[in-house]
Amino acid sequence: MAVNPEIDLVSGFREMTEADVPEIIEIERLVYTHPWSEAIFKDCIRVGYNCWVYIDQDKIQAYGLVSVAVNEAHILNICVSPEVQGKGLGKRMLHKLMQLAEDRQGNSIFLEVRESNFIAQNLYDQEGFNRIGIRKNYYPSEDGREDALVFAKELNLDKLF
Fold first, then answer.
1. Are 116 and 146 in contact (CB under 8 A)?
2. What is the mean pLDDT of the chain?
3. Residue ranges covered by each domain of the chain
4. What is the pTM of this model?
5. Which of 144, 118, 143, 140 is nearest to 35 (CA)?
6. Catalytic-residue membership of 124
């Protein structure tokens, strides 16, 4: 990976580039049974979604993508490399994506999570997200399809009044 002068050396966050995609795909394949393709990540960057990576020791440790439109934000993907899971990087990335959404006038933020992903559900509960629905057969799985739980959280509440 090339050194990027845009990296915030204090936080470790910087915007994702197409050059990051091969390293991201390696992490995707380690974490997910049905990983996103290289084309999906490149399309997300191309259309201007907020795509960020967390770098430590010159290596991508986590990444996240959020889209914001008409005051609504949708977290598309948050992923932490298996070798550093359980160290709070998922929470840091979630906070980064929520801040990006607020900065772009997002008043609410939504996400889907696999029904079987109890660790992520616990994080979203801790961070004040509410379960608002279910999407039947949303995710591909090794056994066919898996339901997604839909979570939401209000943002920018102090700016509404």
1. yes
2. 92
3. 13-159
4. 0.90
5. 140
6. yes
Catalytic option among 112, 115, 138, 139: 112
| The CATH classification of domain 13-159, taken from the options 3.80.10.10, 2.40.50.140, 3.40.47.10, 3.40.630.30 | 3.40.630.30
Q: What pLDDT score was predicted for residue 5?
A: 39
Give the tens place of pLDDT for each residue, 11-46.
799 999 999 999 999 999 999 999 999 999 999 999
**Using the 8-state DSSP alphabet, how is residue 47 labeled?**
T
Alpha helices in 67-139, H assignment, sequence order: 89-103, 118-126
Question: In degrees, to the nearest 5, what angle opens at C-alpha 150 toward C-alphas 46 and 136?
Answer: 100
Rg (CA), the chain: 16
- Out of 49, 54, 63, 124, the active site residue is 124
**Is residue 138 annotated as part of the catalytic site, yes or no?**
no
Asked whether residue 107 carries a pLDDT value surpassing 90, the answer given is yes
